[in-house]
Amino acid sequence: MRLIFAWFVVGLCFLVNRGECVIPKSLLEDIDSVNKVGSYIGVVVPNSFEINPLLQSSSFVVNQKRPYLDVSGRRFRIGTLENQRVIIVMTGLSMLNAGITTQLLLSVFNVKGVLHFGIAGNANTELEIGDVVIPNFWAHTGLWSWQRYGQGPEDELPLESNGDYTRNIGYLKFADYNNDTTTDNLLNNVWYQPEEVFPIETTPETRQHIFWVPVDEHYFTLSEKLEGMELEECINATSCLPRAPKVARVERGVSANMFIDNGAYRTFLNSRFNVTPIDMESAAVALICYQQKIPFLAIRALSDLAGGGSAISNEASIFAPLAAQNAVAALIKLVQLLPS
Fold it and tell me: What is residue 15's predicted lDDT score, i.e. its pLDDT?
C-alpha cells in the first residue's frame, strides 16, 4: 500500500504540472528501492546525544549503497543492527516532533515495528540514576481541562456532556501545594484528559479516546530477558554510581512538553499514576504506533531524579551521557532477541 501511495503521488505531480512535488520523483524512487529490500525495525530517538552512541556502535552497520534518505527535514539512516534491518531517525525535542517524525517514518517506509529509546527523569524512589526502565504503558500528561476558580470535583467541565472532556482520570489541585495555610489557590484544578485517536481499522474521523497506551505484548515479554544485563556505572575513572545500574520492567511512564525538575510534581505523578520514567516524547511515539497498529516499545534510561534529589541542580547535566549509553546497550540487546 505504501508503494501504491508513493507512485500515486508521483502521478499527481505530473498531472498538476508542478515544478516541484512534496516528495520529488527521484526521492520516491529511492524510497521504493529501500522498501523493496523488505521490512525494517524503525528506531526512533529524540536527540543527537542519544542517537550518537548508537551510530558509533560497532553493532550498527550502515548501508553502504544508500546510507540515508532525507525526507521533510528528517534524516532516515539505513543499515543493520545486530543483523536486523533498521531505519534510525532522530525526532528532536518534544511531543510534536516525535509524533510528526514517527508518522513520517511509518507512512514512507516499510516498518514492521518501532523501538524508541532515550533518557528520562525518574519518579520512582525504588530505582536509581543509570537504571534502564521499560514501561508496559505510556500516557500523555500534558492534555488538561483547566477548571475555573470556585469550581471543584463535583462540577461538570465545559464540553464534558459532549464527550470532549472527562473527570475520569483525575486532577491536580494546586491548593494542595500552597506554601502557607491558605486553603484556596486561584489556579484551582487541572483535569488530565485522554487523547483523541483515530485507528486505521476504524471509519475515518470516528474518534476514540485513550489515556494509557499499551506497548507491544511480544516486545515487552522479550524485554524481560534484559533484566540482569551489565550496564555502565562510571562516568570516568573516579566517578561511579553508588550501585551497579539495572534493567527493570515497570508499569507506567508519562510524557509531556515539559522538562520536569520539581520534586512536588514528581511525587504527584508517581503517587497519582504510579509512573517511573518522565520524558517528552515516548507517549507521542506510542500514540502514533497505536493508531497505525505497529508494534512499539520504549526504553528509557534514568538520567536524573526530576527534581526529587538532594543535588542543588538537576543531575542530567552529569549523568545524561551515561544514561544514553545504557539505553543504547539495552536497545542492542533487545534487537539481538528479535527474529532476523
Answer: 40
